[in-house]
Automatic annotation (TrEMBL):
<dbReference type="InterPro" id="IPR028973">
    <property type="entry name" value="PhnB-like"/>
</dbReference>
<protein>
    <submittedName>
        <fullName>VOC family protein</fullName>
    </submittedName>
</protein>
<feature type="domain" description="PhnB-like">
    <location>
        <begin position="3"/>
        <end position="129"/>
    </location>
</feature>
<dbReference type="InterPro" id="IPR029068">
    <property type="entry name" value="Glyas_Bleomycin-R_OHBP_Dase"/>
</dbReference>
<dbReference type="Pfam" id="PF06983">
    <property type="entry name" value="3-dmu-9_3-mt"/>
</dbReference>
Length: 136
């Protein structure tokens, strides 16, 4: 069994996924637009360039997403947690996700982590960035 986050965006899924691929070192492996839907789906022309389904592969992990042209709601009550091996990698990712976003908890050392932060990025996705302390 595995779990994959499925994110919804308000018309900027492609831009968000290109940003995440760059920041996280991943690869967009699927990016389908509503224009590719079968005719019987009867999609309004104004959403034809929006993303119907996308998949971003980061290592062995998959994040999926789409634009939600009629049902978009900002993410609530959850965060996507990124676990990294070094404080430097935590700082790099945090800085990128923070740009234009909303810092909830700045990057700092905690009792469990060398570095930990919480941020909602400029696309509205809430993240936790965590670099655990070494286990003695």
């Amino acid at each position: 069994m595995n779990f994959s986050p499925y994110l919804n965006f308000n018309g900027n899924c492609k831009e968000a996924f290109e940003f995440y691929a760059e920041v996280l070192g991943g690869e967009i492996i699927v990016l389908s637009t509503f224009a590719e839907a079968p005719p019987e789906a009867d999609m309004p022309p104004e959403v034809s360039d929006q993303v119907m389904h996308a998949q971003l592969k980061v290592g062995e992990q998959i994040i999926m997403a789409s634009d939600a042209p009629t049902t978009f709601q900002p993410a609530q009550g959850m965060h996507i947690t990124i676990g990294v091996d070094t404080p430097e990698e935590a700082e790099r990712i945090y800085e990128a996700l923070s740009e234009g976003g909303n810092i909830i908890m700045p990057m700092e050392e905690t009792f469990w982590a060398q570095r930990f932060a919480m941020v909602t990025d400029r696309f509205g996705t809430p993240w936790m960035v965590n670099c655990d302390k070494p286990i003695p």
